[in-house]
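pinned: reference chain
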Amino acid sequence: MLTGVDPITQIQRDHGIVGRADELAMALAVLGAGRHLLLEGPVGVGKTTVALAVCAHIGRSVVRVDGDDRYSESKLTGWFDPPLVLAKGYNQDTFFAGPLVQAMRQGSVLFVNELNRMPEAVQNVLLPALDERLLIVPRIGDVRAAAGFQVVATQNPVEYIATGHLSEALRDRFEHVGLDYQSAAEETEIVRRETGCADFALLDEAVAITRATRSDPRFRKGASVRAAIAMVAIAARTEGPDALRRAAGAALPTRVELRDETDSPLPDVLDELVAEARKKA
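pinned: its structure tokens
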């Protein structure tokens, strides 16, 4: 750790984070107060990076869970191994702790990535752990959280595919920090760092194209800075004057969605965005 450097600058340097000073400061304050933290924002804005960077900075060990709609309650809490149960019965030796029980016993941070992709029944398992620091495991008994146990979770906005609403009871147990898309200058710096590209015209154009997908009314869903990173990386390895256009055609279709009422096909719309970005460059 660098001496004489404030914590936010330290985190930014240690973890390669561009900007996000306010979000980092609030996340530090929430965890420092012993509260549970919910980071919310669109895909690709760095929610996971911020969460893990803050935990690392304050020296907290992390048990990670990646949410999806098939995640089960037993996968979160733990399960009994059937062959061992036949041999030894139901006891601690035949029980394999899931990430929630592991984090509670260790006094660690349970990091739940994309919490609102989990089924509601799985989300509800968290309630007593968040509220009372207690979990009742059938045939095992009470699991009480060791000092230091906290939950840090991320979620995408509910309009994203395969996401849902958190219950009011669950949201009430978290403190909220929102993350939105960053400025053009910060996104350009992120792309430069990620790609090592020194062609600032290419960097500016890729970022401008990506940002245009978020503001152009023909798009239902725009792209994150990941699209700009991909465009620059691909264009730098593509020969010819239309390298950026071809890179955009590869990087953007998996990351954007046109509105149903948009008449033009996606390739034509992307060509327009590329041409417009080059005019402004």
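why pinned: The mean pLDDT is 91. The radius of gyration is 22 Å.
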